[in-house]
Design brief:
Layout (H helix, E strand, L loop, with lengths): L1 H19 L18 H4 L1 H7 L9 H4 L8 E2 L1 H7 L1 H8 L12 E2 L6 H4 L2 H5 L4 E2 L5 E2 L5 H5 L8 H11 L20 H5 L28 H4 L9 H7 L6 H4 L21 H24 L3 E3 L7 E3 L23 H14 L4 H4 L1 H16 L24 H4 L9 H7 L3 H8 L13 H4 E3 L4 E2 L5 E2 L5 E2 L4 H9 L6 H8 L21 H6 L28 H4 L9 H7 L29 H24 L3 E3 L7 E3 L24 H15 L3 H19 L11
Antiparallel strand pairs: 1-2, 3-4, 5-6, 7-8, 9-10, 11-12
Amino acid sequence: MRKALVMTTIAGMVGIALWMRGGTSIAAPLRQTEPATPPMARFPIWGAWASSSHANADSPAFTYWDEETPPRIPVECAGCHSGTGFQDALGSDGTAVGVDASHALGSVIDCDSCHNDATLRKEIVVILPSGVELSGIGASAVCMKCHQGTAARNTIEAAITAAAAEPDTVTPTLTFPDYHTDAGSALHYGTLAQGGYEYSGQRYDVMATHVSGYETCIECHDPHTQAVDLAACAGCHPGVTTVADLHSIRMDGSQRDFDGDGSVTEGIYDELAGLQALLLTSIQDYARTVAEVAIAYTADTPPYFFVDTNQNGQADAAEVTSENRFAAWTPRLLRAAYNYHVVQMDGGAYAHASQYAIQLLYDALADLNTHLATPIDLTTLERIGPGHFSGAKAAFRYWDAKGVVPGTCARCHTENGLPVYLKETVNVLTPPSNRLHCTTCHNDLSTYTLRATGPVRFPSGAVIDSGDPGVNLCLNCHQGRESTISLNRMIGDATPDAQVKGLRFPDVHYFAASATRWGAEAKGAYEYADKEYGGFFTHGFGQLNQCKDCHDVHTQEIKITLCAGCHPNVTGPEETHAIRMNQVDYDGDGDSAEGMYHEIETLQALLLAELQRYARDVTGQAIAYAPNHYPFFFVADRNTNGIADREEIKADNLFTAWTPRLLRAAYNYQNSQADPGAFAHNGPYIVQTLYDSIEDLGGDVSKLLRP
């Protein structure tokens, strides 16, 4: 019975395929005495496909060339605008992979286009317009053969280079490239695909990751109708019943006002729309004042940008003609207009790659701003998401060139690192992630319950339990990577002032807030022998003792309104620097009322001066500090300002003349710098470590006070 059913189904499918091509079904004899049954009545998939744009033989996608002489689809278009052309591109028609001839009109993207030997038995390698090759992407590779756009960053740069154009000089040989419509995959893969124009010196998000099971084309879209699976969306976004409802979606991890309109609750769709409107305004302003030709845009007709003859800001019907195309391009204008168009051409950009699209629009605005008399105020805009969701920052992009994140980094710098660590207590090499994900901390996205986390082991070996499983999640990453114990192990029994060959600077790492907070219990800083150090720092009279009490768990921003409860003058993060409770002059500057932040700031400056003096007098090698470049300390060969200049920050200029005494003090200096909230997390502990470091180096502490 099962075999008969399978054979009948196969026969029916072959019949559909032949019917679509005008052939005769081999299943026809089975129905000789019955009226013909429409294929869609017997095969629901047929009906789904027949309602799709892939089946619409009358659409411009398949009829655009009807009036050509002869009416043929050119080589560069046939691969996506013809069923036979698509099979030619795949090599499923028996020819080599790739379209090498024009194709006749009359065929659409049908069953045979996607269901054939090439798609079922071979791995399809997708070559994007940027030249990047993507493989191992499964069935979505079939979709990506067409939905990838027809231009990329290098298209724009090649045109500008060929024209030998100056940035703001109108160059007649520059033309606007056709990026094409519905190129969702080019944006989805972000900087991996380089479909947008990426400005030099900026980092960009890579592939946008959704929840597990909904990350590829066919996991979110019905492969036959191309419609979004709205029922699946509703699983995490209750109330979603229409595509318009998707426009209102806003997740907690994106709480930034990207378009500067004052709202962080509107959907990401509207954030993008706001940025697009700002960019179009800037494009028109630049074109009018720099290129001296008014410009208008329409998404419906190539080449999309036309001369705005009546200067009303709109592309009117009379203006959308071949003779009226905009031709006063400068390189700067072309780059910005291209990014505007790229985002416009993907109606699902807000879901496919919202952060990458935001970065493309923001950077285009910033570049145009440099030559506008009335620039857009970028101080109200945001380019990237908050901390854990800032996929364009080094915390997630540092390993892109290598292609893997080491196991020692994967726990905190990949979206699945923490879940794996909690389960296995170890991490292995992991591909880079775009950012952390909802599933990093939540084990159920319908109820948003948190992963269970018990006591946490710190680098010193201390095991600490915050008493809150959710806060323990924070402790797993915000604990640093070194400690008093690891430094002592590294130094061994070496003489304090002897240069030790092979001694290196250890990276305590950034934002080790929990190690600061627990002080001597965690021993995240270097604690000198025979000295006493404070432990856990109690804030807010015991009412604000957990990470989540003071910080928003998704944005990591300080809950300023809570600060204001005890500190009425605090209305923003900067004003927390002025907070001072116990009025003691730790730094010896005579001001006991200045904020704890400033007490620490002065002690840091005193310690840096002592590091310089000791390095020069004892090791004979000048030292300079670079706060954002590991391993932070370099040889100072140009001046004695203590700060590493650009020319000094290089791999062959690392400071290596370490003595145990210098290493301990330098480590404490970096530890205080790496936690920007140290003044609030545990100011007394940090003051103790800075004081002791200055004293151990031989500095004058007679005017200082140690808590």
